[in-house]
Amino acid sequence: MNNLTLTKIFSGDTLEKTATLSEYPSNEWVLSYEIGTLVLTFNSSHILSSIVNLDSGVYQYRLLATNIATPTLKKTLLNGQVTIVDLEYRSHARKVLDAIEANIEGRASQAQAEMTINGRSIKYYSPEQLIKLRQTYQREVANEIAQDRLNAGLGSRNKILVRF
Fold first, then answer.
1. CATH architecture, range 2-85
2. Domain ranges for the chain
3. Nearest to 54 by CA among 94, 92, 13, 95
4. What gap in Å lies between CA 106 and CA 101, rounded to an integer?
5. What are the pLDDT digits (tens) for 68-124?
6. Positive or negative, the Cα torsion across 24, 13, 94, 82?
């Protein structure tokens, strides 16, 4: 059962597990991981190969066996915490801007809705406040891009007009 314990997963990676549990044969039981709101189901040979796309953080998980004949019969085989590591290299300003825009558009993930700015979750800001915050973070991201261009020797894209 130790080979089924989860400790750390990189977001975007494929989680591969093979379960050999004689007390839960694959012709009678379906196995699945529940990680936060994500459900990953093993195939009929008790082999799992699924991509994990979750935001960084610590999540509660459980390995669940569900009886095929009686789907209401479920048994938790393992439970614990797993750390999801995001290898994305977005700046803080870019992540906040993406979260603000996702909230404005009504497509925010739970992590984006719970992100805090000035001690307040984004989901509690009014649309007008979100638009003002978006403008602030758009300027900050634009400044980061300009600085990255300067550091790479590409110029800032600012036009300097001179009249003689």
1. Sandwich (2.60)
2. 2-85, 92-150
3. 13
4. 8
5. 999 999 999 999 999 998 776 778 888 899 899 989 988 888 888 888 888 888 889
6. positive
